Amino acid sequence: NGHGPLAGKRVVITAGPTREPIDPVRYISNHSSGKMGYAVAAAARDAGATVVLISGPVNIPVPVGVEVRNVLTAEDMLRESAVAVDAGCDLFVATAAVADYRPETCAGDKIKKSSEQMSLPLVRNPDTLATIAAREDAPFTVGFAAETSDVARYATEKLQRKKLKMVVANDVSTPGMGFNSDNNVVTVFWPDGQEAIGPDSKQQIAARLVALIGEHLDRAAD
Ligand code: PMT
């Protein structure tokens, strides 16, 4: 689509969960299915963009015409995202549900059960979105925010703290919306405005989001 709102743009999108190993057979993860990020990738492709998807482990098909780099951990996600952005990127969209913490070490052998209680030391993971947004040559950067309360307040706080152009706030406390569902309801915030989208299918939400990003990208370029 050479005439779409993202014609000629290079887009990098993160999607899905990350998996943080505890030992050879166990990990910490979350319920992200990748559906939202894959829908954004397909919508960006339909809008004329060249799309690279940095994807955690999911069980859904890659949209035709989209290049995918599969990753497991948050550290992998940052590394592969940086490689993709280095290769040229006009727009970066972070839909992935990245684990904020990982086990301090991954045990070499399966951990045996012993005492009644055990604790697992965790350390902070790098933040892919914040790292990309802080680059001197940062692309137009859009984050997602999954919240269960005070959605608007946390979303606008993320917009400022992570230096984003837009943030897509997701109230994941609504049953049937957000994680691992086909539908979603979001509010998109930018520094001087906002727009509510949905409830609707993730495909429809992605199409409107991409159109909205297209309008703002042009404004940023003026
Ligand atoms: O995959 P689905 O089942 O379709 O579900 C979609 C979704 C609910 C996962 C998605 O719509 C969504 O809201 N994604 C963001 C989930 C999230 O973990 O948000 P957060 O508030 O923890 O993170 C804020 C932003 O920073 C996100 O853009 C996230 O990708 C990014 N981030 C966070 C931590 C980290 N270490 N690296 C990051 O890049």
UniProtKB/TrEMBL annotation:
Recorded catalytic activity of this chain's protein: N-[(R)-4-phosphopantothenoyl]-L-cysteine + H(+) = (R)-4'-phosphopantetheine + CO2; (R)-4'-phosphopantothenate + L-cysteine + CTP = N-[(R)-4-phosphopantothenoyl]-L-cysteine + CMP + diphosphate + H(+)
Cofactor(s) recorded in Swiss-Prot or TrEMBL: Mg(2+); FMN
GO biological process entries: coenzyme A biosynthetic process; pantothenate catabolic process
GO molecular function: FMN binding; metal ion binding; phosphopantothenate--cysteine ligase activity; phosphopantothenoylcysteine decarboxylase activity
DNA/pantothenate metabolism flavoprotein C-terminal domain residues: 6-213
Residues annotated as binding CTP: D100, K110, F144, K158, K162
Superkingdom assignment: Bacteria
GO cellular component, one term: phosphopantothenoylcysteine decarboxylase complex
Function: Catalyzes two sequential steps in the biosynthesis of coenzyme A. In the first step cysteine is conjugated to 4'-phosphopantothenate to form 4-phosphopantothenoylcysteine. In the second step the latter compound is decarboxylated to form 4'-phosphopantotheine.
Protein name: Coenzyme A biosynthesis bifunctional protein CoaBC
Shown segment, full-protein numbering: 179 to 400 of 400
